[in-house]
């Protein structure tokens, strides 16, 4: 996921992005940003931070843990905003979405 | 873009009892082998050997597989588990049924207790089937993994029903065919219908997921399904109506072709994996399939040689080599995640959390794998060479494997969140 430097919420998005690097996929032991699970971060709605993301497998048993991890790292950083996590299946996640850093971590 | 439900993992009370009980049965099986190692040198229709085989098949294999299946069914079917309460009921029934059956075989008390054990196991399997069919639901597009799941449950129900009839027949003979012939059909329906088809379903879905493999052509699994069913149905029908004949080798070849396609599917996913590092539990799981092929290679000896040692070797390779090997590995790919999810789901990101793999000792798994290979090699040699000392040594090694496994499983079960967690840190 890339953040445009001209984005009016560039600073907030970078803060959120940095925090989301701390949420790990427990099976692959790689953070959800480098795994390519996060598609978008939006500050457009007032009092909300909306995370649009996916999971590597529908009905992943660890899906709830990853979702709560996202909320847990964002809430203290943006106390004035409600963290809303939207899970989507389109586009479906594939290993091609793993970042270069993620590939290095996985030894790909 | 929709905000969709992501599904919930089943509650731990619906899954963990199976792992706890299965582990105890595994240790019990090792102790029973130690107490009656001589049974491995005689005919397979020996009360103590029957007790050991049922401990392996019901108390250990089916028990752990039920637990893992309840956890993984939502992943395979992409739906929540139909009824966690029904899962718990199936546990209670299976536990009571297994204890009664195994005890009855060990002391060879045919009659009401053995039959009651058989009835409880059938009721447990019925509960499992209802839960499975409720979870699978109606699927409109072809899904070979779900088909294997449904078929394996149907074979399990068939197997335990025949088993119950055999238990009745021991006390009140009513089956017009020789008891041992039906026993052979009962065993193969369980091994080839229940265990193999369930393993085909779960492994073909999970292996590519764990190793980040690319999707492989589904037609290999479709052909595998067709060949496995054809081989098994023809074997059972022909053997029942016409008795055992050379044709069983033909059916075994058809069935083996089905296994080969399934294995080729796994191999292809393994070769195309992105994640190059394969952890030890996964290595042990994959290695277990070697024993399945060794058992198939033994099949002609079992049929053509009258020596019962080959039947015992055949059973050893399937129950201790293949099924136990697979469970010994896969336990550490499922149980730590269940416990980790239970403890850390809500606090993930808030506190420093360990990884699921930190919940067990990799070193113990390594020793367990070494002991497993050594034990089977020594046991197998002892049975073929008919050497009591080797058999006894192999059984002792097997007991060590069971203790190491139980130690590691207990370690996972007893995991607690540490008090000195770092509130500001992340994973």
Q: How would you describe the overall organization of this protein?
A:
Chain A has three helices and five strands. In chain A, the strands form two sheets. Chain A has a three-stranded mixed beta sheet with strand order 3-4-5, covered by helices on one side. In chain A, 34% of the residues are buried. In chain A, strand 3 (38-42) and strand 4 form a beta hairpin. The model of chain A has no long low-confidence stretch (mean pLDDT 88). Chain A has helices spanning 10-20, 63-74, 100-106; strands at 24-25, 30-31, 38-42, 48-53, 82-87. Chain B has a domain at 1-140: Four Helix Bundle (Hemerythrin (Met), subunit A) (Up-down Bundle), CATH 1.20.120. With 427 residues, chain B is mainly α. In chain B, helix 2 packs antiparallel against helix 3, helix 2 packs parallel to helix 6 (179-210) and helix 7 runs antiparallel to helix 8 (247-271). The interface between A and B is large, with 38 and 40 residues.
Biggest beta sheet attributes of chain B: none
Shape of chain A: globular
Given the C-alpha coordinates, what overall shape of chain B results? Answer: globular
> What is the C-alpha radius of gyration of chain A, as a whole number of Å?
13 Å
- SSE ordering of chain B: HHHHHHHHHHHH
Q: What is the average per-residue confidence, as pLDDT of chain A, rounded to a whole number?
A: 88
Strand order of the largest sheet of chain A: 3-4-5
Cα Rg of chain B: 21 Å
From the structure provided, what is the oligomeric state, counting identical versus distinct chains? heterodimer
Share of residues in strands of chain B? under 5%
Strand content of chain A: 15-25%
First and last CA, distance of chain A: 19 Å
Assign the CATH topology of the domain at 1-140 in chain B.
Four Helix Bundle (Hemerythrin (Met), subunit A)
Organism (chain A): Compostibacter hankyongensis
Pfam family, one (chain A): FeS_assembly_P
Domain MIP18 family-like (chain A): 17-83
Protein name (chain A): SUF system Fe-S cluster assembly protein
């Amino acid at each position: 996921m890339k953040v445009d430097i001209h984005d009016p919420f560039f600073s907030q998005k970078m803060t959120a992005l940095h925090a989301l690097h701390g949420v790990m996929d427990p099976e692959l032991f790689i953070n959800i940003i480098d795994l390519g699970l996060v598609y978008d971060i939006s500050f457009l709605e007032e009092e909300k931070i909306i995370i649009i993301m996916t999971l590597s497998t529908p009905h992943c048993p660890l899906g709830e843990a990853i979702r709560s991890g996202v909320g847990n790292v964002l809430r203290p950083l943006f106390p004035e905003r409600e963290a809303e996590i939207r899970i989507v299946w389109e586009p479906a996640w594939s290993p091609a979405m793993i970042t270069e850093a993620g590939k290095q971590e996985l030894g790909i | 873009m929709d905000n969709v439900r992501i599904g919930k993992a089943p509650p731990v009370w619906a899954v963990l009892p199976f792992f706890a009980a299965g582990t105890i049965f595994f240790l019990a099986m090792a102790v029973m082998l130690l107490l009656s190692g001589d049974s491995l040198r005689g005919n397979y229709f020996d009360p103590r050997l029957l007790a050991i085989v049922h401990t392996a098949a019901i108390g250990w294999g089916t028990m752990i597989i039920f637990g893992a299946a309840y956890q993984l069914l939502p992943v395979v079917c992409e739906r929540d588990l139909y009824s966690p309460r029904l899962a718990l009921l199936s546990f209670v029934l299976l536990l009571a049924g297994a204890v009664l059956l195994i005890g009855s075989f060990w002391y060879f008390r045919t009659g009401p207790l053995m039959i009651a054990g058989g009835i409880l196991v059938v009721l447990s399997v019925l509960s499992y089937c209802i839960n499975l069919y409720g979870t699978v639901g109606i699927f409109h597009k072809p899904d070979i993994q779900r088909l294997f799941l449904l078929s394996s449950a149907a074979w399990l129900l068939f197997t335990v029903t025949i088993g119950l009839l055999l238990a009745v027949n021991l006390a009140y003979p009513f089956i017009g065919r020789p008891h041992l012939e039906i026993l052979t059909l009962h065993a193969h329906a369980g091994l080839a219908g229940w265990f193999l088809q369930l393993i085909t379903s779960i492994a073909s879905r999970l292996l590519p997921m764990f190793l980040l493999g690319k999707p492989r052509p589904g037609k290999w699994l479709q052909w595998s399904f067709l060949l496995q069913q054809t081989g098994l149905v023809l074997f059972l029908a022909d053997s029942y109506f016409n008795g055992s004949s050379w044709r069983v080798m033909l059916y075994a070849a058809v069935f083996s072709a089905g296994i080969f396609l399934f294995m080729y599917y796994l191999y292809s996913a393994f070769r195309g994996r992105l994640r190059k590092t394969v952890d030890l539990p996964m290595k042990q799981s994959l290695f277990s399939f070697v024993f399945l092929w060794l058992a198939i290679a033994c099949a002609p000896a079992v049929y053509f040689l009258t020596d019962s040692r080959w039947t015992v070797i055949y059973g050893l390779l399937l129950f201790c080599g293949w099924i136990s090997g697979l469970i010994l590995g896969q336990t550490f790919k499922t149980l730590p995640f269940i416990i980790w999810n239970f403890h850390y789901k809500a606090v993930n990101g808030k506190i420093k959390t360990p990884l699921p793999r930190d919940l067990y000792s990799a070193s113990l798994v390594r020793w367990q794998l070494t002991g497993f290979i050594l034990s089977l090699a020594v046991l197998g040699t002892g049975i073929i060479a008919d050497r009591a000392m080797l058999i006894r040594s192999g059984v002792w090694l097997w007991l060590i494997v069971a203790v190491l496994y139980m130690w590691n499983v207990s370690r996972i079960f007893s995991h607690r969140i540490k008090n000195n967690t770092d509130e500001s840190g992340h994973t």
